[in-house]
Amino acid sequence: MAGGRQRRRLRLGRKAKAAESSFLAPGTLSPREVAVVKMSSDKTCHTSGSSSSPPPGPHVWADLVDSLLHEITLLFGSFHDFIGFVGTCRSWRAAVSSFASVHTFSFPPLHLKSDVYFSPRQHNGRAQYMLLSDCKWKISDPAKRDLTLQCSVPQNTHNQMLYMGSSCGYLIFFHQGHSLLVNVYTGTEVKPPILPSRSQLSIYCGTLMAPHNSSNLHLLLFTKRTMYQWQIGTDSWSEQHLGLDGERLEQIVFFKGDIFAVDSLASVFVIHFGPQLSTQRVHVEWNMAIIGGVVRPWLVVCGDMILVVSLAVNFGQSKGMSDLSGTFHVFRFDLSVEPAQLVEMDKLENHALFISLDRRNPTFSCWRPERWGGKSNCIYVARQLEDSDDPWTAVELGQPVHEKTEWIQFGSPLYPPEFSVHCSKLESLWMLPNFVSGAGQ
Fold this sequence. Notes:
This is KIB1-4 beta-propeller domain-containing protein. By secondary structure, this protein is α+β, with helices and mostly antiparallel strands.
């Protein structure tokens, strides 16, 4: 036991030293991420005894095959365990990109809570700019509730911008041709080149992706018909016409190298990237009697499936917004038939799903959540209930949620798309960095 603790301390020391000398770029460890690992380990190491047992040679572990390393990651119970894994050596960090599936982890995403509260009733139908000097947030790990990080946008940042979404550990902002990426863990910035003038007033959604078999992140910004693409580190944008229906995309998910996108009318599109970019519309039958009239669902990748999460909103006996209740339903998106079918799932078995109210933010699934203190067959909503100490809400599939605050309304048909999506404000969300979330998968 003592020898194992001693080896753990030595490994953590090597991880911290390697991370402190690395460049803070997408997909690498940052000093703040390593600091969280050290905070966690210090609490146990302070009470441990000493040992003179020498640590094993680095060559013993560096040569483990990728398939075995993949099996090891499936045993992790927290994001901090994974950070420790990828910080051990270069070969282990490189092995992450070769994993066949990034949607079978048994640890949850991290939770980001904005210090700026936003109500849809505050929205006047116009874009609301964020004062980035006031943009602060707190990051929490559901698996290690006592560890949190406080972060903010650097004070010298261009002050007025619109929130465009989040992806791969970055917040995405835009204003008059200027876009900005802010690392949620370090606060560091990436400033892309200015967009062409004709696109300056029409961008409404953004995401990051890594093309298949590539570690190079690309920023994608969308208008109603066009996608602008910028590879991080280059000095120019490329423009592609997508052939969409002219509606705003509400959600973008990555599945098997393609983008699945849903617009404000619940139309589903698949954007193929290689060898030539193309867009295909997916014909799907939305059975409103089953999904409760919610035409703006969430898509969640779960293993080799795409799931559709809907929120059926019901009114109580008396009239008024205070009598709202909601029930989540989950469907398997069957793309093997034409038109595509929604097959309702009674249970999520040993999975939990994570969604944010702003559908431009990423969604996640988690395998065997009991390993970190979570619960299977649950939907974890990034927004907290009124008078709750938890910064998020866990709802068991099929169970009603009676709510007097606004997050049920915020995700329901009671508000048009400009309220539920294009609010331009940073809301609470779930997040993982690129080397965990697998943007290119």
